[in-house]
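Hey, I'm writing a tutorial for new members on how sequence and structure tokens pair up, and I'd like a real worked example in the thread rather than a made-up one. If someone can provide the structure for the chain below, I'll link this post from the tutorial.
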Amino acid sequence: MFKKILVANRGEIACRIIRTARHLGIKTVAVYSDADQEALHVRMADEAISIGPSPSTESYLRADKIIEACRLTGAEAVHPGFGFLSENADFATALADNGIIFIGPPPSAMAAMGDKIESKKLAEKAGVSIVPGILTPVTSAEEAIQQAKIIGYPIMLKASAGGGGKGMRIARDDQETKEGLRAAMAEALTAFGDDRVFIEKYIEEPRHIEIQVLADQYGNTVHLGERECSIQRRHQKVIEEAPSPFLDDVTREAMGQQAIALAKAVGYVSAGTVEFIVDRQRKFYFLEMNTRLQVEHAVTELVTGLDLVEQMFRIAAGEKILFCQKDVMTKGWAIEARLYAEDPVRGFMPSTGRLTRYLPPVTNSHIRIDTGVDEGSEISMFYDPMVAKVCGFGKTRADAIIALRTALDGFYIRGIKHNANFLSSILASPRFHAGRLTTNFIAEEYADGFSEKITQDKEDFFVAIVAVLHTLKCMRGAVAIKSFLELPAIEWVVKFNNKYLPVKLVRNEEHWSVFQQNRTHSLVLDWAPGTPLASGSFDKTPFCIQVDYSNLGYFLSAQGGGAEFLVLTPKVAALNKKMLIKQPPDTSKFLLAPMPGLLVNLPIRLGQNIKAGDELAVIEAMKMENVLRAVRDGIVKEIYVTQGDSLSVDQKIIEFA
């Protein structure tokens, strides 16, 4: 086994690799850019080496700097994690030329599978089902439209060197093909340095299901079952689970055998994933092979009991896989949610800044947290916005959902916007519970966008909790707490969404009785005033809720929703109803930056007539291009920025007449 390895990555995956290395007694070397010099992975490693400026093109994507770091520290091997150089065959070759072991597949397998066009040709030759398409890159909009008409709409434009949802666009007509090709090529060039794009048929109502494989240097290849990754946004996975609630044993076995056949056909070694698209009849088609560790590998580890990073270490060190296919057993159900620094209420725009508070839930046999940050860490505009991967595990799918929702509701993060409530909302969806998943799930279930608005069926829950919270706060400041508790009833009026809801509380020995509109609820609450989390049970159902003070009231969030509440005495509530409501400023005449980022395109001029739907600006943030379009007709009155500017949230870009 290795004595010292270098981790050529950052964030949660670097921390994840370091943990396994430490368990095996292997010394670790971290690399870091200027933006990451105080990062968690740097503090966790035994040694750390600076490799350059913050942009990844000048640091984490510089193979020469990684190799030099190995030379300076004496690292015998490099684990690339995922992203950056993890699927770069030239990097693996360069390591070998310098006597350094690459903890991953051989360069030949990476090269074969790293190009989506060539990989599909190889898959077809190996007897693997592929999606109908034209496996040559398109070079112009006219050629793309011609190919699309041959294949038939809808089509998918895909970057040949792509991954992670980047360089992908769906098109349903000629205009979308023209616009999508430009965007996909630009995004692919930025992310991968390769702007080749090809076209294939887009499968309607698709499910994204992948097979994890392991292969050693002695010809032993096994698969570890499937992961369902159908919950996606902009072709990026959001929630993953193992096993899939859709596959039957026959389909599962067929997919596993095709994955093994492809791995053997390309001489694959190490951990890898063969991704398939599956239609409603369980017909499956090869998408691509990821020649690296996947972000979602944790769910496979939870149901198999295997440490995939450890397996990669052992295989790279020349050891054999010590089990065969019949030995692979899965137990229970695991679901992973990707906790991102983004604002779901504002169209999932990236959010950057410092984590002023970071309190993850306590991990146990049912909850796993993989993260690369802690309190005080900075979420930078230069890298992927992932904060943590949160996993729930249980005997059944229902158990795993409950565990994951509990963890998300108890994940207290401040200083940035994040998507915990959105993830919790997905898990609460009846459609998700039923397992009716497709890659269109988010687009269909949140067609009008995501709102943290509390649904009517949860109003009693939130109103009851805030009333008791306020009572406990008053009790702490009361001179005579005993007399306060001996009141026959405590009456409040809770103001919520401009509604005034009367509540009466009676304190019993172990719980509160809450009376609301002819309904009575039982509430057990564990909360100390000033602490950010309150837990307990509402009508015997456990919960965890986040508590923030907001103006004169409280902001509560849990179970996919959040809102501001004001708790008043009946007399004050009557007066409050007479208060005038301050109207927010009118910003309808301005285009404001919805996120921090780099303004890469500003295709408008002063005095230009704008039509609804016209492209106004393109902002690049966290390796993704975001196109801003006009929502109504107008005339450009003023331009406040220039192309190449770094923008802040809500910064003025354009004013319309």
